[in-house]
Amino acid sequence: MLKELTDEKLVELAVSKDPDAFGEIMKRWERKIFALCFGMLGREDDARDAAQETFIAAFRNISNFRGEAKVSSWLHRIAVNQCLTTKRRAKTRSEEFLDDDGGESERVFVTPAHRSPANTTEATERLIIVRQAVSSLPVDLRQVIVMKEFEEMTFQEISETLELPLSTVKSRVYTALRQLRMKLERLPMEIG
Amino acid sequence: MKNANISECKFSADMVSYMYGELSESEGSALELHLVDCAECVDEFAAVSSARYEVYDWKHIEFDPLETPRFEVSYDDAVVPSWSDKLRAVFAQSWAVPAFSFAALAIVSVLVIGLAWMRSGDEEIIAENPPSQTVAVPAKDVVKDEPESLPTVGPRIEVTDQKPIVATAAKTKASLPKPHVAPKIREVPATTAVSVKGLDPKQATAKNEVKAAPTLNAFDDEEDTSLRLAELFEDLGTR
Ligand SMILES: [Zn+2]
What we know:
The complex is a heterodimer. By secondary structure, chain A is mainly alpha-helical. Chain A has a single domain, classed as Rna Polymerase Sigma Factor, Chain: A, CATH 1.10.1740.10. Chain A has 9 helices and no strands. In chain A, α1 crosses α2. Chain B is mostly helical. The two termini of chain B are 38 Å apart. In chain B, α1 runs parallel beside α3 and α5 runs antiparallel to α7. Zinc ion binds next to α3 of chain B.
């Protein structure tokens, strides 16, 4: 069964034209690639486009995958390059249409595809696990995560509120996210 | 800069700032340039982005539809008050004192009027100040010439002057701490109503039962082990 194969084996199969193998790779990695693109671009609609482009590029170049890197690292690099291209394109666009911001603000209201699956078992499991992971963080780390993600404060604002150096706040958020990543990594692939 | 230990890469410190859009343009460009060359940083950025997105997505799915009150943090005030401090502040507010005085006054006046009415048996007082249910009055004392068909279940309560006052005062009291306390976020049924592998089987069964009858009042408070936003904040208040 495809589900039990390693990423590398799946790539091998995909190279030899197994039609389902690449689909399984996508299924495993689409959420993480989307998250990476979201981290790079800060907008869900842009991130979705970039993630899609990433998999198209990966599919086209799958025979170039040599196996000296992990499949995940290979996909990450394609995604980062894709996002940098998106950013360059957006920058050029905004320089060309400096006074045109109407379309830009409208796009924020596009319903993201990653926003609706609360009704699936998998998404529900994920929510429960994320909730447990966040609540099990040490208090000082949970505090900055709540301020950053729930109260949407800037690092500067958190630093002033907690009377902590800016660098401390940043490293706490970083540490919190790394700890969360480790807690979430124990999940099955397609959930984490 | 290809380090086995990612924390040694000088760019790792900038990653979260970049992710939250809080790097200057030049710093951002430098990091982007570095990402093209450093596979380790790319993997690290992916890991951090993934963790962040899970929290972001959780918040948007579970909390955003619930219209939670905003958490107002005054940035002029560098000290974050604890929840108990906030509560205390609420009760120390000047408007709270008149509100309570008013409530107390209303209750006392109900009692006094009720007492006067009991003693006098004056029909005029009954007509103008029908006793509310807060006053214990025997049914037989109700207006003598009242038609038989009227219910004799105690005093008439439909046009009391006192009761609304009491109710308003009570309501004011009840609603005082609300905007200042971390909201108790109830679980959205859809997000809990499914059993989870690896969880306590007993708990999973309970969740499944909820799914079968997804009504709000089907939630047993003792069975509901979900984390509420309030709990997230619970021990954050004090530094
Ligand atoms: Zn690096």
